[in-house]
Amino acid sequence: MKAMQTPITVDKINCLKAGDEVLLNGAIYTARDQAHKRLNGLIKSNKKLPFDLKRRTIYYCGPTQTPKGKVIGSCGPTTSKRMDIFTPLLLKSGLKAMIGKGERSKEVINAIKKYKAVYLLAPAGCGALLSKFVVKKELVAFKDLGPEAIYRLEVKDFPVIVGIDAKGRSVFNNI
Q1: In the prediction, which pLDDT does 174 show?
Q2: To bridge 105 with a disulfide, which of 40, 84, 98, 138 should be the other Cys (CB 3.0-4.6 Å)?
Q3: Is 100 labeled as catalytic in the residue annotation?
Q4: CATH of segment(s) 2-174
Q5: Which of 32, 36, 38, 96 is catalytic?
Q6: Mean local confidence (pLDDT), 108-135
C-alpha cells in the first residue's frame, strides 16, 4: 500500500500505476451529477468556483444522513461514467484525482493522460465501512442538492485502487 497526501502533486501521480493500492489522507470533495453540472456551468461562465480545483480530488459520492455520534453516514462510491460528460473540463481546470467505481469513457481516459491526473476506485458496496475513514465533514456548496451537495471530507487511510493512471493504463483492460 502506498500512502498519499492530498492535495496530490503531479510527481506523486506519475509514480502511480494501474492496480496500485493507495491509502489517501487529507481533503477530498464529494460531487455527483448535479454538482458537476453546476461546476461546469460556473467554469464556462468564468464565475468563481466554491473551491479551487487545482490539485484537488473529487469523490463521486452522495453521503447518507449522518447518524447521531458519527462524522458521516454511509459514503460509498457512485458510478463514475455519469460524470464523464463533465470531467474533461474539470481536469483542464486543475482537478488531479477522481474517486468512483466503474469504467470511464475514452474521452476521459485521454483527458487523464493529457492533464496528468488519476482515476481511483473505492470499493463498491462498502459505504458503511468507508465512513470509518472520514474524520471530518463540512458543507462547501450547493446545499439545496441535499446529499448531492459538495462536502469537504477529511480522510485518514481511505483505501482506493488506481483504476486509470496518468499514462492511461487501466485495470479494466485486464478484466
Answers
A1: 59
A2: 84
A3: no
A4: 3.20.130.10
A5: 36
A6: 96
Q: Report CA-CA distances (Å) from 55 to 58, 111, 145, 172, 173.
A: 10, 15, 25, 25, 27
Using DSSP, state whether 171 is helix, strand or coil.
helix
pLDDT tens readout for residues 46-58? 999 999 999 999 9
- Specify the pTM: 0.95
Residue-range domain boundaries for the chain: 2-174
Q: Enter the C-alpha cell of residue 170.
A: 487501466
Q: What secondary structure does DSSP assign to 92-131, as a single string?
A: HTT--EEEEBS---HHHHHHHHHTT-EEEEPPTT-HHHHG
Other beta carbons within 10 angstroms of residue 130's beta carbon come to 25
The amino acid present at 69, given as its one-letter code, is G
Closest CA to 108 of 127, 126, 90: 90
